[in-house]
Amino acid sequence: MEINLVAEGVKFMIIGMGTVFLFLMIMIVVLKFQAHIIGKYFPEKIVPVPPNSSPMNDKGLVAAISAAIQMYKKRNQE
Questions:
Q1: Given this model, what pLDDT does residue 66 score?
Q2: Domains of the chain: which residue ranges?
Q3: C-alpha angle 59/65/68, rounded to 5°?
Q4: This prediction's pTM
Q5: Are 55 and 61 in contact, with CB atoms under 8 Å apart?
Q6: CA–CA separation, 74 vs 66, rounded Å?
């Protein structure tokens, strides 16, 4: 009885890679199905954004960011 180790190795490699591939395909299908079910029963709430509340027009936010940058530069000067 002669055993070809290369052929056995290739066979086990194909079986192993096939098993992993099959598992990943099943996992993708299950996750897509789960996302569909969650999206159906727990929809995302859409929050309307007022047209004049752009962060670019928020002077308080700009002032806070500028102050933080100045403090950072002051602390890290050597």
A1: 92
A2: 5-75
A3: 140
A4: 0.53
A5: yes
A6: 12
